[in-house]
Amino acid sequence: MDIKKSQQDLDSFDTKSISNSRRDFLAKTAALSATALAGTSLLASEKGDPVILEPTIWGTKWGNPVTENLYGMPSKYEHNVIRRYSKLLSSGNYRASIAVTPIQDLSGIITPNGLFFSRCHGGVAQIDPNEHRLMITGLVDKPLVLTMKQLKRYPSVTRTHFIECPANGGQEWRGPQYNSLQFAKGFMSCAQWTGVYIKDILADLGLKPDATWMLAEGGDSSHMGRTIPIDKVLDDAMIVWGQNGEALRPEQGYPIRLLVPGWEGNLCVKWLRRLDFANGPWACKEETAKYTVLKPTGKAIQHFYANEVNSTVTSPCPEIDWTDLKDGDIVEIEGLAWSGMGTITGVDLSYDGGKNYVEAKLKGLILPKCWTRWSYMHTYKEGQELLLTSRARDDDGNIQPTIDQEELVVGVEAVYHRNAVETWKVEKDGKVTHVEVRSQLDRKGKGPLFIEGKV
Predict the structure, then answer these.
(1) What are the tens digits of pLDDT across the range 367-414?
(2) What is the CATH number of the domain that holds 212?
(3) Are residues 188 and 159 in the same domain?
(4) Concatenated DSSP letters of 37-66
(5) Same domain for 183 and 218?
(6) Helix or strand holding residue 20 (H, E)
(7) Distance (Å, whole) CA 130 – CA 128
(8) Where among 234, 257, 292 does a domain terminate?
(9) Which of 398, 402, 391 has the alpha carbon at shortest distance from 436?
(10) pTM (2 d.p.)
(11) 31-42 pLDDT, tens digit each
C-alpha cells in the first residue's frame, strides 16, 4: 500500500463532498421518516440543521493525545458542574465550612469523587500516608498502633452507601432560603467505599465486655471527635481508604476515614487517627455544643444518629426548569430517595403539594442505606401550575413526614435531621421555584393549606 499517496488523498479530500453526501442521505432519510419523537424534525426545515449537515470542527482534525491528562479531566463544557459554597454556611472562614454537591447534574447513585460534598471543621488536612498511624486503645485486650500497610492487611470489603450531613435541608426550617436544589439538598453524596469492618479488627484485638462506646478522633487541626454506640460499631462501621475505585481524596479524609453507614455524616470522622473504647460516651464538643436538636420544650435531643427516610425531586428543580417544553411533551420527573434506617421500598409523587399522590417507579440498584433513583413519566400541559412533592418510605416502616408533622415534634429552632417533604412549584411558564406547603401558622391546627415561597 502506498502510504504517502493515501495520506495525500486524505489531505485533499473535499469536505464539500462530505457535506453534499450528508445532505443527500438526510434528505432521503427525512422523506422516509414519518415522525420524530424528540428534538427537531428533519422535515421541519428545507435547509436543515447546519450542525447536522456541515462537518464539525472536532470531526475533521486530530483530538488531543492520550498523554494529555494522565489522570483525566471532565470536559471543558461541564465547567458549571461543580461543588458550591456560601458565606452563610461557613463559620467565619472557609476552613470551617461546606461545599455542596450539584445533585441536580448527577446520574445514577454514585457521586464522582470530585463532586462529593466536603465538610471541614479546620480545613482540608494534607497527610503523608507513610507518616500516618491509627492507634486503637481503651477496653481492648491488645491495644496497638497500625501503619497504613498493616491496616490494609485485614480482609477488605466494598460497600455502597450515602453520607449525609445532618444539617442537610436545615436552613429550610423557617421557610425556603435558597431557590436551589444544590443548596437545599446538596449536603450529601453517595459512593462505593472500600475498607475493613471494625468488627474484624476487634475480633483480632479482643473487645472487653464492658466496652459500650467507641471514640473516633481525627488527625486534622480540629481533632474532630465523636462517640458511637458499640452495637453500631459491631454492625457495619468501617475504616475506609478507597472511594469509587481510587484512594480517598484529601477532602474526604485521606488516607483513612470512618464510615458509619446511614448515620449522620459528622460521625464519619475524616483523617482518622484514633479509636478508643470505653463504658460511656465522651461528651465531645461536637455532640454537646453541636449536633443536638432543641425540642419545643427547650430540652435537647442528644445521641440520635440515623438519617431519617427522605427524598427530593431532582428534575425539574430551580436549576433544571421546563421553560423549553411545549404542550403535550412527555417528560420524566426524576428524583432521589434515601434512608439511614434501611432500604427504600417506595416513593410517592404529588402534583398538588401533598393532597394526592401517585406511586413512582424505583430505578436501578436498590441497596440499604444508599441512594435510590425514582421517576414518573409526565405529559406537560402548557400554562398548568404544579406543586411537585415526593414522599419516600423504607423497609423499617418509616414514611417521610409533612412539615407540620415534623415541626410538632421539634419546632422550628432545630438545625439537624430535617426530613419533611419538599416542594417545587412549577410556574405557568415552566420556571421552578422552591416553596413550602403547610397548614396555617398555628401548627397544631388543621387549617387550609398555604404556600410559602422562597424568602
Answers:
(1) 999 999 999 999 999 999 999 999 999 999 999 999 988 888 887 777
(2) 3.90.420.10
(3) yes
(4) SSS--TTS-SS--HHHHSPPSTTSS----T
(5) yes
(6) helix 15-32
(7) 5
(8) 292
(9) 402
(10) 0.87
(11) 444 344 455 555
